[in-house]
Amino acid sequence: MNLQLSLIIRIILTAFICLVANAAYVLYHNDQQAKQQAIETADRIENEIQTQLQRIYDGHDHSTSFPDAKLWQNINGLPGSCIQFESLSNSRQRFICNEEAAINQSWPSWFGTLYQQFFTPDYQAKRKVVFFALSFGTIVVTLNKQSEISSAWTNLRGLMGLTFMTVLALATLVYITVSRILKPAQLIVNGLEKMREGQLDTRIASFEVNEWRRTSDAINQLAISQQQVMAENQQLALKLMNAQEEEHRYIARELHDEFGQCLAGINAINSSINQTAKQQCPDLVEESDKVSEITRHMMDVLRSLLTRLRPAEVDDFGLTSSLKKLVASWNNRTHGETLYQLTITGNIEQLVEPFPVNIYRIIQECLTNIAKHAQASKASITIDYQANSSFQLIISDDGIATETTILDNQMGMGLIGIRERVSALAGQLEITSQSGSGMTILITLPIHTYEQPS
Fold it and tell me: Do the Cβ atoms of 333 and 292 come closer than 8 Å?
């Protein structure tokens, strides 16, 4: 849940609680006000009757009507309320109601029921009329139930309308304000997402709010430090790869000069022995042939080892010829079970060290993985080189290997080595796979940003 929605929900919940509290207060105040007016009406009528009794006692009032209901008409009671004088004698009974048009029920039934559960809309205010210790009767002021419920509902509905408009205005204001305040947060998240994808040159703009500005500055400083660390790691990885290639070159040279010459000498001596044996000791010819066979096998193993240690074709004949020879060798090994195709766009002979050897190593490792694990019928190697700009390598097959299975076997170790080489060259590696459709490896190397490590 985002902050905007969370704040709006909290505002609505708070407003609902306030509405319930205010509604309870309004209804309570409405009930108390009606009761107070009924009490005040009863008090005023009592005073009028007391005044009339005093006038009669003093001989100033010769009216035959007691109590005189005409005196009550000037008292403005609550709408629909009734005033009754209960006397000990039936001749003195009086009853008058504050006439009001019939009240249509505008409130829901549940409200009327609920209101009557907590309040007394038909409340009665009573006052006894006593003059010189003589009781003349009781004044009863009765509230109109429908009028009181209608008044309470009107007040409550007004409160609800006001609360709704207030909450709506407040929620809108909060949404707009928070949107403006949190806009930098989305920009920061977008910048962090780009950095997570490897775009460490991304920078977050400065903001007016101090807190956001400090956050963006800290993230930018972190990105700069990460760039420096990545650059140092790339330089170190390149140095390690160069040292490794130099070591491979040295071992290959030593094997060629020492072990290769020894095998050549053994083969020459064995040929001489074979010729002599044919003339003087035919029984040794078979053993001599076995020695020749073993020597040839050792020479083949040595050539294969020298190729893996340091492909001489890359140094002697160039990257294009080396890759063509590599693809042709894999086509010969598979005897048509897997068809390897090579497509090159651009003059890759312009690439400088350490690109040629590393590109050859990457393709070599990928083809080895395809042959061992993919069970593919087709495999393609596509190279697109833009001079002094970028280098793109796409290796795809239609085998069974997927991204979820590459780490379950030795293929994962090969991909780790490929990833290390690509990272050292400041490139990007993307692996996509789909069950039944094989796997595709996309490698992009920024040739123009490469710097040879010192």
Answer: no
